[in-house]
From TrEMBL:
Binds 1 Fe(2+) ion per subunit. This is tRNA N6-adenosine threonylcarbamoyltransferase. It comes from Modestobacter marinus. Belongs to the KAE1 / TsaD family. The gene is tsaD. NCBIfam families: gcp_kae1, T6A_TsaD_YgjD. Residues 26-313 form the Gcp-like domain. One of its GO terms (biological process) is tRNA threonylcarbamoyladenosine modification. Fe cation binds at residues 113, 117, 307. GO terms for cellular component: cytoplasm. GO terms for molecular function: iron ion binding; tRNA N(6)-L-threonylcarbamoyladenine synthase activity.
Amino acid sequence: MSQPLVLGFETSCDETGIGLVRGQTLLSDALATSMAEHERFGGVVPEIASRAHLEAMVPTVHRSLADAGVTLGDVDAIAVTAGPGLTGALLVGVAAAKAYALALDVPLYGVNHLAAHVAVDELEHGRLAEPSIALLVSGGHSSLLLVPDLAQDVQELGRTIDDAAGEAFDKVARVLDLPFPGGPPIDRAAREGDPRAIPFPRGLTGPRDAAYDFSFSGLKTAVARWVEGRQRDGEPVSVADVSASFQEAVVDVLTAKAVRACRDHGVDHLVIGGGVAANSRLRALAQERCDAAGIVLRTPSPRLCTDNGAMVAALGSRLVEAGVAPAPIDLGADSSMPIDLVSR
């Protein structure tokens, strides 16, 4: 028998993602984004995101099915992001997934958005080594995880205590008059800059600080004060140097703590996921440090790092394979769903 076909729904933030996965094979990954509608506000507006999901849902499902060359009748199970994320946005996805599951009479799985960012790597690199360490970095999350069993056992080692890495990129981009979201323009500008030009601080790296937690709020403030000081004194601000120095401060901390977690827990595989995992300097420095430490690094292609339906379907496929019980039909959205709860 062929492996079950899983339809995945992702609506945790501003992107409507619908993916189809059979086993570890990605058949389609359709995406609709409302990013342009949020750009003038400098950040995601929850109400706008929710309304955009409502408008995009059915057309995106149809596009995913057409791209995969299958019909709804071929679907064996449905997976949906149940949390964490924006409550209104999550509710749209959960309601849609429940409706499809009821209409098709197939099992429904409510999955954790963060665990799905780990699962998506299996679509490109095969089964994840267990245990692995996962570094998840996005606009809303910066987390270090120990993953003994992706389907049932994901443990949080550390997380951001204030601004997540992606959020810091957005705020620094605003200071530098760069477009939203800030990650890609800062990455591009940094290629022309000197990462050692400005000694920005590395948060939570002192001997008394939590080993695996992150803090980027102080770094963001340091960049803003440096820029304001230069402007007040009438001196030029090199966007390239500021971008490179800020980016280096972020990825230095992320990669150092990830490698430390691998060493401390005797794990020789590291997977990096989330939107910030598409950053070129993060990928390069992580590879350099993992090579030096004898750690196998796995990073999905940039297109699978950002939020998408494929990652939800991938985790759903793992849950089906592991025999995890599906969710009840009264499944709800949980905006603060803890990472140690892989599914509901």
